[in-house]
Amino acid sequence: MSYEDFIKGRGAQKNSSNKFDAHSHETRDDFLNYCNAEGEEAVNFKTTTIETFPKTIVNKVTSPDVGMDFSLNPYQGCEHGCIYCYARNSHEFWGYSAGLDFEQKILVKRNSVELLEKKLKSKAWQARPIVLSGNTDCYQPIEKELKITRGLLQTFLKYRHPVGMITKNSLILRDMDILRELAQDRLVHVNISITTLQEHTRRILEPRTASIKKRLETVEKLSAANIPVSVMMAPIIPSINNHEIMPLVREVANRGALGVGYTIVRLNGSIGEIFTDWIKKSMPDRADKVLNQIADIHGGSLNDSRFGTRMKGEGQFAEQVKQQFKIARKMYLQDRKKPSLNCKLHEEYKDGQTKLF
Questions:
Q1: Contact at 8 Å (CB) between 235 and 263?
Q2: pLDDT tens per residue across span 155-184
Q3: What is the pTM assigned to this prediction?
Q4: Using an 8 Å Cβ cutoff, are 58 and 116 in contact?
């Protein structure tokens, strides 16, 4: 299978088996031949949305490696289709595949705004930063129509509550009006995820994300508006983007980023199977090399769940990446620092307006 034969606009090229299902499914050659003879599509690759109404929306994060205490995800599944995405495995809990289903079947939490407001008004709740997109992108394409993330930001502003954001989409610029107001009281941090400066690499790694040009412009525009913005180069994938560390840090620093973070790719659960299938089809000349290097970073396995090493890896490659970021920060970001998020205002606004007495 050549790159030209790929399912256009998708990262995963297959649906992996769901470990929670009693039955497995496969697309047989005789079925594909029948569909071809009849002029029918074997699989519908269109995106569908499924409405859900959870009872809670703010999640406590217990992992010591993630760098956040609470997260909020208005969507489950992500049309961006990043092939390496760690969130793919979570789609299996909903009865879907971590492969194509993750990109095509998007669960929409319709009551997100109401649940957040209930949480922020709770007498027991004490303000702590809540991060949008700890799992899936809150600005994925469906947000343009549904505007759930915009409603969440309006709620954070109403109750003067600190919020962090992570996104690959320039759609965040739509909400600049709210972000400016939040920033005036130190109530928002934004992280733009930029994995590469090469558009060709971006298209195969992250097929439905904003272009690199738009993401760099987003960093620049947020910075110009005095909205604290940093960049996440996540993940670093050996022999694909690790050579871009220095030029990428230099570029985002020139655009006004206050800091740069990174993780090293890990392929837990079904992601190992999906990524292996993808790279052998998209980069057959270096597939084995990349997979072997990833395994070498994680103790000989693509799957790494060890706290303390799973996000940064170990060994010579991991150390080289660490040192490159250390040098890059010293060269381009030495005098920059993100302002701390303000957790003190919220108590005065628990009922949605400032207290008079």
A1: yes
A2: 999 999 999 999 999 999 999 999 999 999
A3: 0.87
A4: yes
Per the rule left: phi > 0, alpha: psi between -120 and 50, beta: everything else, 336 is beta
Contact 77, 51 (CB under 8 A): no
Please provide residue 105's backbone torsions phi and psi, each rounded to the nearest 5 degrees.
-110, 100
Instruction: Assign 193 to helix, strand or coil.
Output: strand
State yes or no: pLDDT of 60 exceeds 80.
Answer: yes
Q: In this predicted structure, which of 15-24, 68-77, 344-353 has the lowest mean pLDDT?
A: 15-24
Q: What share of the chain is helix, strand, coil (3-state, %, to 5)?
A: 40, 15, 45
Q: What is the pLDDT of residue 196?
A: 98
What distance in Å separates the CA atoms of residue 352 and residue 357, rounded to the nearest whole number?
15
> How many whole angstroms separate alpha carbon 68 and alpha carbon 325?
21
Cβ neighbours of residue 309 under 8 Å, at least 6 residues apart? 298, 299
Q: What is the CATH classification number for the domain harbouring 102?
A: 3.20.20.70
**b/e burial code for range 151-178 (CB count within 10 A of at least 16 → b):** ebbbbbbebbbbbbbbbbbbbbebbeeb
Check residue 29 and give its pLDDT: 56
For residue 31, tell me if it sits in a domain.
no
For residue 2, is pLDDT > 50?
no
Q: Tell me the pLDDT tens digit for each residue of 10-19.
A: 655 555 555 5
| 116 belongs to a structural domain | yes
In a domain, 308, yes or no: no
Tokens 């909205």 found at: 227
| CA 56 centroid distance within chain | 21
- Residue 357's pLDDT is 43
Query: 66: alpha, beta or left, given left = phi > 0 and alpha = psi -120 to 50?
Result: alpha
Q: How many domains does the chain have?
A: 1
H or E segment to which residue 130 belongs: strand 130-132
The whole domain housing 256 covers 40-263
